[in-house]
Amino acid sequence: MVLKIIAARKEIGWRLTDLAAHCQLDTATTYRIVACLVADRLVQQRSSDRRYVPGPLLWELSLALPAYTSFVSALRPELVRIARRLSGISFLYLRSGAESVCVERAGSARVQPMTMVGTRRPMAESTAGIAMMLRLPLEEQQELIAFARNQKHRTTEYRASAYRTILQRSRRYGFGVNRGDTAPGLNGVNVPVMDGKNRPFASIGLMGPAAMFAGERLAKLATALHEDAERISREYSALIHDLDSHER
User: Fold this and answer.
1) CATH number, domain 66-244, options 3.30.479.10, 3.90.226.10, 3.30.450.40, 3.40.47.10
2) Do 221 and 206 touch, CB atoms closer than 8 A?
3) Is 61 exposed, middle or buried (0-12, 13-18, 19+ CB in 10 A)?
């Protein structure tokens, strides 16, 4: 848990006391855990401000999973095309157990989202994760909702309430829809990418100013993203199959 939280805040880093409070652990326990992670180079303490940030061993270990690197590299040009064609910021998320993680983004917009590469959230508290959830059996959806609710280090109640609103709206539309619920003036739409077993393993999405998603434009954006997602499932089936060989 400590390692995932440190990795999710790679730019800002963590002071020990803040990290302990976020993890709901006492400072001494947190220090012992972090000291072990630092000794193994999974975490490092930045010299400029003494904050804890991800360590180089994380990248070295990732080399053991080349299928993920190949998939993200192959999808990067796709995201650039989506961002240019639809005039927003495009995102690629992967499912990671009961969580979703942003693995790539492209494009720009006047209002910048807080989501960066490496951002990790429970699936039920991410528009991208909700887009994947909607294609799962109801029982599995309920398990993912319970997981988000029971996290020690969960988001604030304000954001949790916002994602409940997003989930309710997304159920009506059939895909992930964020209407400025988490960042005023910034809307988003996400659709799932299915694997060879017709299960959602990823999602692609677009974020931008609210005016982009007004009226009939929302449906047109969603249709365009669904077409892209279906094409990605077909054209990159070999890479997706390689990902299926690893448990997500």
Assistant:
1) 3.30.450.40
2) yes
3) exposed
- pLDDT per residue as tens digits for the range 74-94: 999 999 999 999 888 999 999
Task: List the one residue out of 55, 124, 56, 70 whose CA is nearest residue 246.
Answer: 70
pTM for this entry: 0.85
With the C-alpha atoms ordered 159, 162, 163, 164, is the resulting torsion angle positive or negative? positive
- State how far the Cα of 205 lies from the Cα of 222, in Å rounded to an integer: 9
CATH number attached to the domain at 2-62: 1.10.10.10
Q: Which two tokens stand for residue 8?
A: 């999710």
What residues form DSSP beta bridges with 115?
Answer: none
